[in-house]
Target: SDR family oxidoreductase
Amino acid sequence: MNSTVVITGAASGIGLSASKQFLAQGWNVMMADFNNDLGQKVYKELSEQYSPKQVAFAPCDVSNAQSVDDLAQAAHQAFDHVDSVINNAGIFVKGAVHEIDEQAWDRVMATDVKSIYLTTKAFVPEMIERKSGTIVNTSSISGLQGDYNMAVYNAAKGAVANLVRAMALDYGKYGIRVNNVNPGPTMTPMFKRNPQSVIDEFIQASPLRKLVQPEDVARTMFFLASEESAPMTGENIPVAAGFAI
Ligand code: NAI
Model:
């Protein structure tokens, strides 16, 4: 039987690349995204390219408990069980602490951090029962360092960078591995919203003089979800074109 992965934020950027990566490796993919229109569009394309039995899409707000429970139900309707969860959905809001309004602060923390609590509650019980599973969270190099004008993102991704250790400790005895991928500046729709001059500055600041591509992160997510990374748990793994050194 094929392995099954649930990928959040799968309609765009890194999550879309990850969906393609897992499909190409023969996994079943349950795609989930807040953006229903875009999600349905990319789902249609992928289900035509692969077997419609191999891929499904569910609209989901990862910051909402009911929505995440509905996602778990959709995953079990489409596929027998879930082997891996990729917590990829995330948002970014600019500003120093005093410049960020309360709603924006709460929205980032809920989308980037609480979402992992919710998906874990929804999917980890079956992994505990089956004594196997992998969870890959998406932190950032911004979870490992401070950045100017990125206070809530630093707070959120920093929380994810330490949460992975707690999850790895608590679930290791059940054969469940939990790791983070920590992308550096990656050329996704989220990053392309920066002015070209800012993008050029980032390129010059990289020791490799380049930005990360979504496919680079997707390959690492696949590695961390698969048996290839069997001895690894509780790790933060930068994929960052040298930004985090
Ligand atoms: P993106 O904006 O291209 O894609 C994010 C996807 O998540 C979108 O399809 C969006 O609809 C979805 N999403 C947003 N809020 C959601 C919610 N509440 N529920 C469900 N889906 C939701 O972003 P990108 O760049 O692909 O980012 C993916 C992850 O990688 C995020 O966690 C981000 O913080 C992280 N990251 C990105 C970096 C970059 O430079 N692009 C660098 C470091 C980390």
About this structure: The beta strands are 4-8, 28-33, 55-59, 84-87, 133-138, 176-183, 236-239. The helical segments are 13-24, 36-49, 65-78, 102-130, 151-171, 189-192, 196-205, 214-225. The pocket of NAI is lined by residues 8-9, 11-15, 33-35, 60-63, 88-92, 111, 138, 140, 183, 185-186, 188-191 (CB under 6 Å). The chain has one domain: 4-184+214-239.
